[in-house]
Every structure is written in structure tokens, then in C-alpha cells.
Amino acid sequence: MFVKHLLPAFVAIGSVAAQSSCSSKTTTINSQDDVSKISGCRKVEGSVVLGSESGATIDLTGPREITGDLIVRNNGQIQNLQSSSLESIGGKFEINNATSLNVISFEKLTSATTVEWVSVTRLDTLTLGPLTKAKSVRLSDTFLNTLDGFALSTVTDLKLDNNRRLSKYTSELTSLDGQLVIQANGLSLEVDLPKLVWITEMAIANVTKFSIPQLQVVNGSARFDSNFFETFSAPNLTHTEDGDISFVGNGFLKNMSFPKFTDLNGGLLIANNTGLDRVTFFPKLEKVTGAIKLRGNFTEISFPSLDNVKGAVDISSTADIRKSCEKLSEFAPRSQGGDGKIEGVFTCTANNDKANEDTDQSTSGSGQVDGSDENDENSASGVVLNAALFGLVAVAAVASAL
Ligand SMILES: *[C@@H]1O[C@H](CO)[C@@H](O)[C@H](O)[C@H]1NC(C)=O
Ligand SMILES: *[C@@H]1O[C@H](CO)[C@@H](O)[C@H](O)[C@H]1NC(C)=O
Ligand SMILES: *[C@@H]1O[C@H](CO)[C@@H](O)[C@H](O)[C@H]1NC(C)=O
Ligand SMILES: *[C@@H]1O[C@H](CO)[C@@H](O)[C@H](O)[C@H]1NC(C)=O
Ligand SMILES: *[C@@H]1O[C@H](CO)[C@@H](O)[C@H](O)[C@H]1NC(C)=O
Ligand SMILES: *[C@@H]1O[C@H](CO)[C@@H](O)[C@H](O)[C@H]1NC(C)=O
Ligand SMILES: *[C@@H]1O[C@H](CO)[C@@H](O)[C@H](O)[C@H]1NC(C)=O
């Protein structure tokens, strides 16, 4: 108690007379008293590690910079971790398995190379500088309902998972050159990335809204699984540079929009989104370097601008899509009677009750979706329509018209 009361005064004196830097590979803090080892240093050259029996409150006020890591692991005692001076952590700010920690307050902290907080299950009060510079951020299994402490405009990797109270995430991100993973957070998480222009990889699951109004390029892949949104819109997305786009098991999805999307340098997989009854939202899609695989309750499918698909086109619907199949068969390989815009095998199956059971993500590369075993089984009850057949139908129609 006595020490705590004295602490602010001590720190003030300490910082006036602050040593410019203190060097020690690792400073271990087992109690508030131990903080005096570093509280007189402006800069701590090395890492700071909290022991697992630190007590309930640790105030690290003193240093402005820790060049190494700040680590809290397997600590069931700490409830309140704070510093009113720390601006930068050169390495990792790691908190792992600190299940009593509910307040983190670093009001000046704006920079850390990595933030990795995992199993901080009670954490609900967070104050940061805000943090504007970080390469990698992972927040897993916290009790946070807002990420206002983070104001990153670029980041390499960002992973948000199992934050069950998180209901809204709006970010200033303009680009992300590693991976964005968002999954298994609150059942009504709305994600808004209003400034995001390009992103390398993303895997998004279990969100109710995902907004990317400025996104122009996905350099790698974009994957959307088991989300709760009814509509998905990528109004400014023009192409992917090297990767697939997939939407699987988004049970509420009714409508999508990709008005400017022209080039998919990878494959397209749309499967088991049972409310999605049309795939008519790629008005400008010209080129696909992988395969196209569509499975669902579709009544209509069209790719009006399609010019070249290097891989297979493999479509199966629970409903009657024979008209769409017939139209698409015009693009089939020459060996199947089409004009060859599709280079891989063209398959289109209507009235297949089991269309939604095949969600295999095998659309990448220039190879063909392996159509053997899975399709035989899945198309057993359906009507397989192929281009050769349409060739015959078309010829027959012409013949009878004559
Ligand atoms: C988490 O930390 C507690 C101590 O607070 C420890 O007893 C427990 O074994 C740790 N859990 C894991 C998975 O390491
Ligand atoms: C992603 O694509 C954009 C636009 O072409 C480009 O500016 C950016 O450098 C690319 N990012 C990576 C990591 O390749
Ligand atoms: C969350 O998404 C995963 C797929 O990444 C899925 O397996 C899981 O069932 C989903 N959970 C809910 C509640 O939708
Ligand atoms: C697409 O991006 C442009 C340029 O940044 C912007 O003006 C426009 O509002 C965006 N479109 C949509 C539908 O958000
Ligand atoms: C299809 O999606 C539903 C959720 O909409 C899910 O329950 C089911 O397991 C999925 N089926 C397959 C084969 O992925
Ligand atoms: C689908 O979305 C597009 C663009 O957001 C919109 O113009 C169209 O009316 C929507 N269609 C349906 C059936 O909701
Ligand atoms: C999708 O098709 C399956 C198989 O025909 C059917 O059981 C299911 O009710 C359909 N779902 C919707 C939302 O139309």
C-alpha cells in the first residue's frame, strides 16, 4: 500500500533523473517492487517478463521504450496491467493465459512489432495510445467488445478469433500484406474496412456483415465460410492477382455483387450457400486462370463476359438450370462441341439433390477439378448436361427448323 502511494512521486523523480537507457537481456517482474529495476530507465534494452505470481496490479510506468518483448504468460493473478509512459515495444507484446486480467491500460503505447494476446478471457477494458504501428496483431479469446485501442493503417497479419463479445470492428486499414483472419467471434460481428484498398489473403467466417467499399485488389485468396450475411458486395474489386475466391456454407447469403471484377487469377468456388439462387453477379468477369466450381440451389447462372477459363467449369444445382447449362455450353472446349473459351472439362448438372454436399476446395491451378469419384456420386440423381449433348440438341433443332 505504502509503496503504491509513493509510486507516482517516485516515478516522477525517477524520470527527471532518468537514465537514458538500461540494458539487461531479460528483466523479470515478480511484484510491483520489482518494477523499480526499470522504472528509472527511459529505454529498456531487452525484454520484460512478468512472473506468474505477480499479484493483481502491475504498473510499469517509467520506461518509454522496451526494445525487446513484454511478456505475461500463465499468470492467473494479474487483473490490471498498466503503464502511463510506455510508447513503444520493439518486439512482441505477448499475453498468454492470463485469465484474471481485465484491464490493460497503456495510454501512450502507439507501436509494437507484434501484439499477441491469447486466452485473456476476462479482458474487457483496454486503453492504448491508440496503437498505430504494428506488423502483426492477434487477439484470441478475449472479452473485448471493441477494438478502439487499435488504429492501424497497415499491418501484415491480423487475426481476430474467439472474441465472443466483439460485435463491431471498424478499421482504418488501407492495406494488409499478409493474412487477415476473422472467425468465431460474437455471433453478430460486423466488420467494416472502409479504407482497405488491397489485401493479400483473407479468411472470413461467422460475421454478419463484411464491408469493403474501396477494395480493388486481392493479391492472394479470399475465403468466406459460414458467415451470416445476406448480401456481399465488392463494388470496387477488379481482380485477384494469385489466388482463389470462395464462398462456402454461407447459409443466409442471397445476393452478391462484383460489378467491376474482370480477372480471377485463381479459381472460383461457390458452394452450399443454399439461399443463393442465382450466380449472375459477375457481369464483367473475363478471365479465370483456375477452375470454376459452383454447387448450390441455383436457378440461373451466367457469365456474360467470360472469355477464357484455363481450368474446368463444373456446375451442379439442386434446381433446374438446364437453360443456363445450355448457354454456358457454348464456351465449352472444342472437344465438347463449344468454342473453346473454357479449356478444362465442362460439366453442368441440373436437379441434383446432393449438389450442396460437395464443398471441396479444389479450384486452384490450371488443372481440372477432379470430376471422377465425387461427381459420379453427387450427380447420380441429377441430369448431367454436357456440351457434346448440347451440340446434338442444337443440330437437331436446326435440322427440324429446316
Ligand atoms: C494457465 O495458467 C495457469 C496459472 O494461472 C496454469 O495453472 C495453467 O496450467 C495454464 N494453462 C495452460 C494451458 O498452460
Ligand atoms: C497487391 O496489389 C496492389 C495493386 O496491384 C499492389 O499495389 C501491392 O503492392 C500488392 N501487394 C503485394 C503484397 O504484392
Ligand atoms: C464458424 O465458421 C466455421 C468455419 O470456419 C464453421 O465450421 C462453424 O460452424 C461456424 N460457426 C457458426 C456458429 O456458424
Ligand atoms: C469505389 O472507389 C472510388 C474511389 O476510391 C470511390 O469514390 C467510390 O465511392 C467507391 N465505390 C463504392 C461503391 O463505394
Ligand atoms: C452446408 O451449410 C450448412 C450451413 O448453412 C451446414 O450446416 C452444412 O454442414 C454444410 N454442408 C456441407 C457439406 O458443408
Ligand atoms: C443484389 O444486389 C445488387 C447490388 O447490391 C442490387 O442491385 C440488386 O437489386 C440485388 N438483388 C436482389 C435480388 O436483392
Ligand atoms: C436447397 O436444395 C435442397 C435439395 O433440393 C433442399 O432440401 C433445400 O431446402 C434447398 N434450400 C433452399 C434454401 O432452397
Automatic annotation (TrEMBL):
Residues 1-18 form the signal peptide. It is found in: Secreted, Cell wall. One of its GO terms (biological process) is fungal-type cell wall organization. InterPro entries: CWI-Assembly_Regulator, Rcpt_L-dom_sf. Residues 352-378 are annotated as: Disordered. The keyword Signal applies. It comes from the Eukaryota. Its main location: secreted. Keywords: Cell wall, Glycoprotein, Secreted, Signal. It holds the Pfam family Ecm33. SUPFAM superfamilies: L domain-like. One of its GO terms (cellular component) is fungal-type cell wall. The keyword Glycoprotein applies. This is GPI-anchored cell wall organization protein Ecm33. It comes from Thermothelomyces thermophilus (strain ATCC 42464 / BCRC 31852 / DSM 1799). The lineage of its organism: Eukaryota, Fungi, Dikarya, Ascomycota, Pezizomycotina.
